[in-house]
Amino acid sequence: MSARSRQIVLAIGLTGLLIDAVASHPSFAVNRVTLFRVVTPQNEIVIGITKAELAAMQGKTAEAVTKVLNDVGELQVWQYETRAGTSGALEEAPIRKVAVAAGPATRIEPYTTARTILPITDEIMIEAIR
Q1: Which of 11, 23, 57, 76 is deepest in the core (most CB within 10 A)?
Q2: Are 108 and 69 in contact (CB under 8 A)?
Q3: What is the pLDDT of residues 57-82, one digit of tens each?
């Protein structure tokens, strides 16, 4: 096998790996979602905020989200929940649009996971309106 043939095979292989990485990990996609945990005396939920929404909040941290929540009084966000995906692997998926109200006992914390985080798509938004 010539050096040129090896380069072509390597380039094809690397291209395939890159396509697989982007397709199987939506967090690499443009509409990336950051997850946060909202803790109140009554319950605890995980919410997702898009990259664009975080940019409008002028921050990417839980503290920035808390500041906006306290300034505005309520945020409309997507609640996320762990579910089994089509391949059987666990993933974080948006399930419903919820209102998070500001309160003295409401805390917003960072939430990290090794699971795939599904983006908020137009299909999900249309279903939520129905």
Answers
A1: 57
A2: yes
A3: 988 899 999 999 999 999 999 999 99
Measured distance CA(74)–CA(53) in Å, rounded = 14
Q: Which long-range contacts (CB under 8 A, 24 or more apart) does 122-125 make?
A: 124/78, 124/94
Residue 91's nearest CA partner among 23, 25, 4 is 25
Angle in degrees, CA 123, 82, 109, rounded to 5: 100
Instruction: Using alpha carbons only, give the angle 91, 115, 39 rounded to the nearest 5 degrees.
Output: 85
pTM over 0.90: no
Rounded to the nearest 5°, which phi and psi values hold at 91? -145, 160
